Amino acid sequence: MLKVSNLHAYYDNVHALKGIDLEVRAGEIVSLIGSNGAGKSTTLLAIAGLLSPSEGKVTFDGEDITKLPAHGLVKKGLSLTLEGREVFEALTVEENLMLGAYTKQDKKAIAASFERVYGLFPRLKERVKQQAGTLSGGEQQMLAMGRALMSEPKLLLLDEPSLGLAPNLVEQMFDLIVDINKQGTTVLLIEQNANMALAISDRAYVMETGKVALSGNAKELMDDSRVKKAYLGHP
Predict the structure, then answer these.
(1) Pairing with 143, which of 60, 150, 157, 226 sits 20 to 30 Å away (CA)?
(2) Residue 86, Cβ neighbours under 10 Å: how many?
(3) Could you give all domains of the chain from N- to C-terminal order, each with its CATH number?
(4) Contacts with 151 (C-beta within 8 Å, 6 or more apart), sequence order
(5) Which residues lie closer than 8 Å to 195 by C-beta, 6 or more apart?
(6) pLDDT tens digits, 134-158
(7) Which helix (H) or strand (E) element contains residue 141?
(8) Is 126 helix (H, G, I), strand (E, B) or coil?
(9) What is the DSSP pairing of strand 203-208 with strand 29-33?
(10) pTM of this prediction?
């Protein structure tokens, strides 16, 4: 479904991505793990059309999307939830979600998307007329994910969905990601909580200073001594 080949990207003079290769197959949950500054978020931004790579290629469903703008990628079936939630605080929950459906014209299809999102996130249905800025952090994260799902993406890119959430909400968030995947949405996930990310993933890539250092089956990586020591809190 998604293939990234030899991807390089810069922030001014900083060489942030140094030849990234990765693949996401239809139906998978794939995680990118690594320390802060490893290049995980930059990789997602480059895939999603929000950062222009200096070299390399991004292919989605067999089509070269390297130069396509972000709004064009949504129409192709790729959607991104940014780190930090980024909801429109002055708008209601319903209005935020409606913005996520901007690629759709069919009212029945939009209604079906609302039904799916409210099924996944019942809390949002309870807050439908509430301003997004008055929601809790967990509710805002649900809203950001719900808005991304309104376009019915084939591939959902999630950047740190558990960041800043209370511990009791973190497990709930990962359960939701599994549910979204079971409903047919492929997921590429960036997550600081490596234990939880690997536990729900099919495969994973470990990034270090702009490169892929390790990759493989997620369960096998959980047993890798290097991953245990660096990211899972084991000696």
Answers:
(1) 60
(2) 13
(3) 1-72+156-169+185-235 (3.40.50.300), 78-152 (no CATH)
(4) 74, 77, 79, 100, 101, 102, 103, 104, 113
(5) 222, 232, 233
(6) 999 889 999 999 999 999 999 999 9
(7) helix 137-149
(8) helix
(9) parallel
(10) 0.90
In the structure encoding, which two tokens stand for residue 229, read together? 């020591």
Report which residue type is found at 187: V
pLDDT in tens, 71-116: 889 989 999 998 766 899 999 999 999 999 988 888 999 999 999 9
Which string of b and e fits 93-115 if b means at least 16 CB within 10 Å? Answer: beebbbebbebbeeeeebeebbe
CA distance 107 to 218: 40
Tell me the Ramachandran region of residue 171: left when phi exceeds 0, alpha when psi lies from -120 to 50, beta otherwise. alpha
